[in-house]
Specification:
about 190 residues, Rossmann fold, 10 strands, eight-stranded mixed β-sheet
């Protein structure tokens, strides 16, 4: 499967790349600065683009799925965009909708309580896209190895004490790319 990962330089993004490559997928990693991604593999293609300004239709061509993990970037000082991920999704969704081979979108909301409105806006863009989307809402992300033992629910209550590793989020996302039961669903993940 051909997977485009937006936010590939994030901790979760790097774990997604590694897990996807182990599963035999072909990964295209979209980055702003190629030097920030020090991963090398024959099945990994690193593309340097500014996701907020560039036309991404050439990158989307041939992809089967897009995974977005850029949620909640730093606010811009001299610009209208306050949330990089929402702006990028707003730019890429029309292109994805026009590409018949790219219907699957998975979004990892690396949210914090400070960004509730930005996350809600971002989620609404995705939900109204007409694509086969799944939104993954991890608990507080931590740097621990993959356990493979996490709870998934459509109704898990938010807890300030809940946590989950970047590696386990990546495990869940990659393993559920083709899970049709999760299309159109917002899923919580935590230990």
């Amino acid at each position: 499967m051909n997977i485009l990962i937006l936010g590939a330089c994030s901790k979760t993004g790097k774990k997604l790349i590694a897990h996807g490559l182990r599963k035999g997928h072909y990964i295209t990693a979209l980055v702003d600065k190629p030097e920030s991604l020090q991963l090398f593999d024959d099945n990994l293609k690193v593309v340097c683009r500014n996701t907020l300004n560039d036309d991404l239709s050439d990158i989307l061509s041939g992809q089967n799925v897009v995974i977005n993990v850029i949620c909640g970037g730093r606010p811009r000082i001299f610009g209208k965009t306050k949330n990089k991920s929402a702006a990028m999704i707003n730019d890429i969704l029309p292109t994805m909708s026009g590409q018949s081979d790219v219907r699957r979108l998975l979004v990892v909301n690396t949210k914090s309580l400070v960004r509730k409105k930005a996350i809600r806006d971002h989620s609404n863009l995705v939900k109204n896209s007409g694509l086969d989307w799944t939104i993954v809402n991890p608990a507080r992300l931590i740097d621990k190895p993959k356990t493979g033992r996490y709870k998934i629910s459509l109704n898990l209550p938010r807890s300030p004490f809940a946590k989950v590793s970047h590696a386990d989020v990546a495990d869940f996302v990659i393993n559920n790319i083709e899970n049709r039961n999760l299309v159109g669903k917002s899923v919580s993940i935590r230990y």
